[in-house]
Amino acid sequence: MANGNPIPYKIFLTENEIPSFWYNLRADMKNKCAPLLNPETHKPMTSAELEKVFCKELVRQELDDTTRLIPIPEEIRDFYHMYRPSPVVRAYCLEKAIGTPAHIYYKFEGNNTSGSHKLNSAIAQAFYAKKQGLIGVTTETGAGQWGTALAMSCAYLGLDLKVFMVKISYEQKPGRKEVMRTYGADVTPSPSTTTNVGRRILEAFPGTNGSLGCAISEAVEYATTHEGYRYVLGSVLNQVALHQSIIGLEAKAALDKYNVRPDIIIGCAGGGSNLAGLIAPFMGEKINGMSDAKFIAVEPASCPSFTRGSFAYDYCDTGKVCPLAKMYTVGSQFIPSPNHAGGLRFHGMSPILSQLYHDGMLEARSVEQTSVFEAAEFFARTEGILPAPESSHAIRVAIDEAMKCKKTGKEKDILFGLTGTGYFDLSSYRKFNDGEMSDSIPTDEEIAKALTQLPQVE
Amino acid sequence: MANGNPIPYKIFLTENEIPSFWYNLRADMKNKCAPLLNPETHKPMTSAELEKVFCKELVRQELDDTTRLIPIPEEIRDFYHMYRPSPVVRAYCLEKAIGTPAHIYYKFEGNNTSGSHKLNSAIAQAFYAKKQGLIGVTTETGAGQWGTALAMSCAYLGLDLKVFMVKISYEQKPGRKEVMRTYGADVTPSPSTTTNVGRRILEAFPGTNGSLGCAISEAVEYATTHEGYRYVLGSVLNQVALHQSIIGLEAKAALDKYNVRPDIIIGCAGGGSNLAGLIAPFMGEKINGMSDAKFIAVEPASCPSFTRGSFAYDYCDTGKVCPLAKMYTVGSQFIPSPNHAGGLRFHGMSPILSQLYHDGMLEARSVEQTSVFEAAEFFARTEGILPAPESSHAIRVAIDEAMKCKKTGKEKDILFGLTGTGYFDLSSYRKFNDGEMSDSIPTDEEIAKALTQLPQVE
Is B452 an 8 Å CB contact of chain A? Predict the structure, then answer.
């Protein structure tokens, strides 16, 4: 009890209460996600095809849309014990500063060295790679949170890791690169001369800064041309949403202790891994008619997959070598204008969230970055945590909803996901502090043009 | 219970169990600390003299060596609720990696945006300034942890903050500067043209990188020449040790729950605030004959106040404007060779710890920085937390002690203080990763020379 309050500032589960199963929301969905398609044949990807790129057990999880609960192996639970359970925080100071009758809660995933929720899936993917007897895994990283999380997981399990880091991030975020190296990862700026695709791109665009799409292509090429390696990915995929369900399961268990049933659940959405994980058990209740909670996905106005994109099959990468997924997308060739939330610049969206949005189970809202940083700064000063720009999208909308409650006088329970900390994003905060930050919203023509390039699928 | 273990990975107190009193170890010490002396008259500093520089209530705490328990005001406890209690972690993974029969515990103070234990005293000092009706406070910062902690505290209370940041840190650590600015602090590189002492130094040494001693002088000048301001300091002082006792009180309460009585307690020591706080209640037991625990202060070989310094009156700053304290010191004019643990480069040591060391209640050990970073990397990879270079001094000795237990087969309980995270120290990790780090130990002549310049006190 917090200084006389019936609910503490931070609701912690005990370590015994860390979930022992992941929850597979797809098993409860009325309309299942459409299958991944082979980018060349446009036929559903088979397990055999997927296993050339991904670990066997992860392919099984990717394709399984019927098993509700999937046991978390003990080795992964051991690792979870190092940094979980993460707290649900009651934002008493924020509520007071706003003067809202709403009760605001956030699930804080930033209290680990990777600085975000990415670690939840990184350890799972690394574990299955190790179990399969692999030497190592490859991946790409942009902002660096996923690369860091994977480096920590691979160091823990003694697995080799090759990270292809978008060149401009490699140069602008030396700190991120060093964390990965300290955890033993081999970090290569992308495009590089170590892969065919990298060499081709360097030849065509000698001064290029690189892109996530290019880094993905290099990581996939390395994995598929080196014995004992597979490729792993930190978002978008169903398996990632599955692992991230631990966020929602813990949040629900914590709130249940105090009989709190959130009316509104809010999360930022780039590829969708955090939001899919946070909402999973709450959405399961809604699907089964046990709740009428409202769910809000928040995306940057500069990359508005939900709010201005199409629900269609599209490539997951700009290089068009990855499978096609049916999802909300602004087109794999869409280039978002600069935005400081690097983790939200992906053109598409988790197929699970896309289906739910299509079915009217989920709302979406797009917000501009200056208003996001205003919310971030306000939150930092009142709640004492410097948030990641990505997470601050959720903060923005949580504050907006709490302000509405102030007008209506309604005591709503609001839960949002605070996915990570902004310790490696201080150049963005500098721009905001110096008044140099601007908003940039794509025109209708820009989006329409990118959408004309969607693949034609029968 | 952690996967069948009787003790969880992380022992958390409930929020109700956050201590409501600080513990003033001086009340139990057989030999009290010598009084602070006026740097000009060499007479004991009076309250009135101290109150020109420091807040009234903090002066009272500074001079009080008889009251055992001092109530923590409710407003400070409210703030503590945002990030405390901090966990005591059982280092199962580290123990396994070393193969030691020892049980290793660490009190982790890094899970807050300031990244260290400094926040415990920052909020207390800011609170008393606010209560006194001041407009604001001034301080200096080197590595930036103290400045960040104080900026967070002042933002929370609506207090103005002027930080004088050592110029080279200001330039090399833009991230640290930005966090402080995001929390509304005014950050000035030191030496600056805004103070007399700054202008004098700039005239004498036009290209200077600045020093902590100079920044202190500027901060003190600003506070004493501006109505409504006082100066605050993050270490060395008795009041800081008092506030930091919350570390030890929580650690003891957590370990008591599982009947663990540490045999060895280890902490890094720069000015001594963290170590004094961590050991306080355990040392109280030892003084009162209820324990025979061993206490180890770990300092860098490059700045060996305990292991190679003198127990004597010395200035707390290089500018010789601050009071004289009786402490272990290598001399206020000693310039430590470069070391990446910026927080451990102070020439002196907490008067409380100095007296205890002098009385044989505390051991000290000095370690070289390459071996410290080896320990840091090993710890990061096994325990999943990237430690601050300062904290890693304690890790080094904890591992050394655990290795001894491996030889002797003894199941000792080892507790150390993990004061903070290394997220803003990645340029140091880069040097280590690239094999560019070296050790540098002062010669006997260098230390002897610095000691000849100690003030002559009757």
Answer: no
Distance (Å) from the alpha carbon of A191 to chain B's nearest alpha carbon: 22
CB contact under 8 A, B78 and A3: yes
Low-confidence ranges of chain B (pLDDT < 70): 1-5
Residues 98-127 of B with CB under 8 A from A: 111-113, 115
pLDDT band at A67 (very low <50, low <70, confident <90, very high): very high
| Residue among A14, A77, A182 minimizing CB distance to B377 | A182
Residues 6+ apart with CB under 8 A from A437: A340, A369, A370, A373, A428, A431
Is A163 in the same domain as A177? yes
- Looking at the 3D structure of chain B, how many domains does it have? 2
Amino acid at B137: V
Interface of B with A in 67-86 (CB under 8 A): 74, 77-79, 81-83
Domain of residue B362 covers 2-19+84-114+244-433
If you measure CA to CA, which chain A residue comes closest to B373? A182
Report the share of chain B in percent with pLDDT over 70.
99
CA distance A305 to chain B (A): 30
Cβ distance A182 to B383 less than 8 Å, yes or no, reads no
- Among B194, B210, B231, give the residue marking a domain's end: B231
Sign of the alpha-carbon torsion through A95, A97, A99, A100: negative
Same domain for A11 and A96, yes or no, is yes
Q: Given CB atoms, is A183 within the 8 Å cutoff of chain B?
A: yes
pLDDT of residue B307: 97
Q: Report the alpha-carbon angle A55-A61-A63, nearest 5.
A: 105
Q: In what order do the strands lie in the sheet with A136-141?
A: A186-190, A160-166, A136-141, A229-231
Report yes or no on A446 lying in a domain.
no
Residue A400 lies in a domain: yes
Q: How far is CA A378 from CA A98, A382, A409, A437, B405, in A?
A: 10, 6, 22, 16, 49
Strand partners, B363: B296
- Does the structure show a pLDDT above 80 at A93? yes
Residue of A nearest to B85 (CA): A10
Does A1 score more than 80 pLDDT?
A: no
| Strand residue runs (E) in A358-445 | 363-367, 413-418
- Does residue A4 surpass a pLDDT of 70? no
Q: Which of A155, A385, A430 sits opposite B174 (nearest CB)?
A: A430
Least confident of A160-174, A361-375, B241-255: A160-174
**pTM as predicted:** 0.95
| Complex ipTM value | 0.94
Query: What integer best gives the mean pLDDT of chain B?
Result: 94
**Helix (H) / strand (E) containing A61:** helix A56-63
- A171 part of contact set with chain B, CB < 8 Å: no
Residues of B in contact with A111 (CB under 8 A): 111
Question: What is the distance between the alpha carbons of residues B362 and B104, in angstroms, rounded to a whole number?
Answer: 20
Q: Please provide the distance, in angstroms rounded to a whole number, between the alpha carbons at the two ends of chain B.
A: 58
Q: What angle do CA B250, B252, B258 make, to 5 degrees?
A: 115
Q: Which of B82, B181, B433 sits opposite A433 (nearest CB)?
A: B181
The phi, psi pair for B51, rounded to 5°, reads -70, -10
Split at pLDDT 50, 70, 90, the class of A193 is very high
Rounded Cα distance, B238 and B326, in Å: 12
> Is any Cβ of chain B less than 8 angstroms from the Cβ of A181?
yes
- 8 A C-beta contact, residue B390 and residue B234: no
Closest CA in chain A for residue B13: A12
Helices (H), B173-237: 174-182, 196-204, 212-225
Residue B458: per-residue pLDDT? 72
Which CATH number do you get for residue A219? Answer: 3.40.50.1100
CA pair distance B151, A341, nearest whole angstrom = 25
Model confidence band, residue A114 (pLDDT cutoffs 50, 70, 90): very high
